[in-house]
Amino acid sequence: MAQLFSIHPHNPQPRLLKQAARILDDGGIGAIPTDSSYALACHLDDKQAVDRIRQLRRLDERHLMTLMCQDLSEIANYAQVDNAIYRLLRHITPGPFTFILRATREVPRRLSHPSRKTIGIRVPDHPVALGLLEQLAQPLIATTLQLPGDAAPMVEAAQIRARLQHELDFVIDSGNCGLQPTTVVDLTGRAPVLVRQGSGDAALLGLVPS
Question: How far apart, in Å, are the Cα atoms of 80 and each of 1, 104, 118, 210?
Answer without folding.
Answer: 40, 6, 10, 28
